[in-house]
Design a protein that fits this description.
138 residues, alpha/beta, Rossmann fold, five-stranded parallel β-sheet, globular
């Protein structure tokens, strides 16, 4: 059995390899790939939404996990959002997705401590690689 951690918010022992996943994207194929990955790897898929408020409500409710954020979402300025998430939900790792990531997005995302980047269209392999690099909080 792998290392385990205790979640004080729920009072439960949690397997450190387990992740809770939220997706903010209007791109249905991206959401489907992420959901398929989550369910195939025994992660908990908390939900997907094209609506920022709904996605943030899931983050607020569950307090820890991985937040897949589509940088191409209409009406969402992702870099300020990443900074707010880092401050308000530090146990959520943010992975940015974009069809055409710019150097500016990559450098500013890195400075904002984004956990990873994915280029759309997504693949299960790409999702697995970025998820493997995410460290479990201790």
């Amino acid at each position: 059995m792998g290392a385990q951690e205790f979640d004080f918010a729920t009072g439960k022992v949690v397997n450190s390899g387990f992740r809770q996943i939220v997706v903010l994207s209007g791109c249905e194929p991206s959401c489907e790939f992420i959901e398929q990955y989550a369910r195939g790897n025994r992660h908990k898929f908390l939900g997907k939404s094209a609506d920022l408020r709904q996605a943030l409500e899931l983050v607020r409710k569950f307090k820890q996990g991985v937040f897949f954020l589509d940088a191409d979402s209409d009406g969402v300025d992702v870099l300020p959002l990443v900074k707010v998430l880092a401050e308000k939900a530090p146990a959520f790792h943010v992975i940015l997705m974009s069809q055409a990531p710019t150097k500016e997005l990559l450098s500013q995302g890195k400075a904002a401590r984004v956990a990873g980047f994915l280029v759309k269209p997504l693949s299960i392999d790409a999702i697995e690689k970025v998820m493997e690099r995410i460290k479990t909080p201790t």
